[in-house]
Structure formats: structure tokens, C-alpha cells
Amino acid sequence: MRFDKFTIKAQEAVQDAESIAGKYNHPSLDTEHLLQALLEQEEGVIPPLLDRLGVSTTQLRGELERALTARPGYMARMLSF
């Protein structure tokens, strides 16, 4: 994937999605992380687009929060020698 070919907004969304995955201790970046990042983007095109389609972004954010919280994260374990 050529990250440098992404638009600035797309690069920011991927970086924000990585931060969101880290916040939940998720070992991989998934579509839910990216969608949450796109919903939170200032001056982003996704919230107005969803509004025009009749999608409640408030409800979607809540559902994303529940889904991300329910997903297991990674746990650091101490190894005994």
C-alpha cells in the first residue's frame, strides 16, 4: 500500500484509526477503527454524507463504541524464568 499516494485527509484518518486501535489495546487496525476515525474527522465528508443518507451518526458512534469495547484487546503477560 502506498501511503504517500493517499490524500492528506485519508492519511490522517489512518493515523487516527491506529490511535483508536491503540486506545482499545487492539493488535490490528480494522474497519471499525477507520470508521470511527472518519466520523471524528473535523471538516470530514463522512458525517454529512451519512446525514444526507438518513443515518444517525450519533447512533452509529454509540454502536461503534460498544463494538470496539466488546472486542478483546491484547494483554501483556510477564514471563517467569
From TrEMBL:
Residue ranges crossing the lipid bilayer per the database entry: none
Residue stretches in coiled coil: none
InterPro entries in the record: Clp_N_dom_sf, Clp_R_N
Domain Clp R: 3-81
Pfam families referenced in this protein's UniProt entry, alphabetically: Clp_N
Protein name as annotated: Clp R domain-containing protein
Biological source species: marine sediment metagenome
